[in-house]
Structure prediction request, 204 residues.
Amino acid sequence: MGVVVGDILQLLLKVLLVARSNMEVPIEIVTGVVAGILSALLIFAAKELWSNSIAPWYSSLKYQGADISGSWYAKINETSKNDKESDNASADESDSEGSDNESFNAGVSTFSMILEQQAHSVTGSLQFTFDGEVKKFNIDYDLSGEYWEGYLSLYCKSKDKKSFSQASMFMKLVGNGKGLFGTFSFRNAVSDQVHSVWIGLDRN
Prediction:
């Protein structure tokens, strides 16, 4: 908004300078142009005020659903999870899949999430930390999404543009509003495939 307002004010200044340097321009034309620019500025400001302040406030006022805003946390030992899965798989499947899973999942994943909510619209941030035997890394995500009828859908986009990463979360509110349970899906850099893990987030 600030850039647009600045451009309009610069245009207004140019009109006034032209009018001052050329006294032959009728005053009616100058006042008409200035009035038009000011009207456009007022309409734009009113639109921004409605979209960014009044409409969200009114939607939040009418909203009667669950409040999921706040801090959420989860810690997952993915190694033990894979051990349980391998018990149910055949020996051949374990041999063919074990190397890829182990290379990524031999460690602990930590999710620290903060959500802000305006009615059904949800934004926030997520800090994902992986502490593994092969790799250790940390990714900070910006979150955006919606909460409808007990289900939360979020798109995760990394804040660091130099190492772009994206993911998605689809979760259900459980435990009388004290937990979120669902999936965290992302691109596995090792296998170059979509990888999904089940997570349960607790409200802090």
Remarks:
- The chain has four helices and eight strands.
